[in-house]
Write a structure and sequence with these properties.
alpha+beta
Length: 277
């Protein structure tokens, strides 16, 4: 650990901490690629997130309690990977954060899980005041258009561009991320950003929703629950799928701790593989 790193950490502590007293790790908060909800962050949104999440606390499953605080971000970086492109053909960008926690007896197991790759996916909680249609540029927060995200127009996938980030709340360790590449599950403020259906019926995004639902059911009730809910979800439209997923996410967040990652496996008794950030 460099002296500069320790100085950045000690800006958030009440007394200077030594290198031996802190544990430091990196996380990918979000990126600019289209996620499973057919949404993505704009480049400007990523820049704002990069600035806004310095000092934000890390918790688990978005449960906002003081006892649930585990870490804090002390530095961020907006990274451009010109060797990689997004699904819409732009250079790939992502926000990488450095976080620290104080080494204690209570968090020894958590540190071991991070080092062992058990805890790796994270999710951010923020507020985006603009939701822009990728086809026509309409801001769906204040207006509407005829384009449906998840459907293709002129051979291009319609998606929502999240822009104008107005607040950053927290970041969490989670089990089921929405962003395929960054592993981010987005949570929005009470400004109505969750109200719109994800996409049209029988589109690719609906299938991704069904996969998420089956994974969530697996972690809540095992293979039997996963198989049963898969049959039910197969007949649902987009709006119904969204409501079911949110219900399962709520149940999952209030359930006890489980192993967060499964080894890659193609057998029937394993849920679909999680995306790695």
């Amino acid at each position: 650990m460099t002296k500069e790193t320790l100085e950045k950490i000690n800006k958030f502590t009440r007394r200077p901490f030594s290198e031996d007293e802190v544990y430091v790790f990196s996380v990918i908060l979000c990126d600019n690629d289209i996620d499973r909800d057919c949404e993505r962050f704009s480049d400007e949104a990523l820049e704002t997130i990069c600035r806004s999440f310095i000092g934000r606390t890390g918790i688990s499953d978005h449960q906002p309690s003081a006892s649930n605080q585990t870490a804090r971000i002390f530095d961020t970086e907006l990274v451009s990977d010109d060797s990689r492109q997004t699904g819409y053909g732009a250079p790939y960008k992502y926000v990488r954060a450095s976080a620290y926690m104080i080494r204690t007896d209570d968090n020894r197991d958590l540190i071991a899980e991070i080092d062992g790759g058990i805890k790796k996916e994270v999710s951010i909680s923020c507020s985006a005041s603009k939701r822009i249609c990728s086809v026509c540029g309409c801001d769906k927060t204040s207006g509407s258009c005829s384009h449906v995200k998840g459907k293709k127009y002129g051979g291009k996938l319609c998606h929502i561009i999240l822009d104008d980030i107005t607040d950053a709340y927290e970041w969490s360790f989670v089990a089921v991320p929405a962003q395929v590449n960054a592993g981010v599950t987005k949570h929005y403020s009470s400004s109505g950003l969750e109200s719109e259906p994800v996409c049209g019926d029988n589109c690719e995004a609906d299938n991704e929703l069904r996969k998420d639902i089956r994974r969530l059911a697996y972690f809540i009730g095992g293979k039997t629950a996963s198989d049963t809910i898969a049959l039910t979800a197969g007949t649902m439209n987009t709006g119904q799928l969204v409501k079911l997923k949110r219900s399962l996410e709520s149940q999952r967040s209030h359930s006890g701790p489980v192993v967060q990652l499964m080894p890659e496996n193609t057998e029937e008794d394993s849920p679909e593989q999680f995306a790695m950030r």
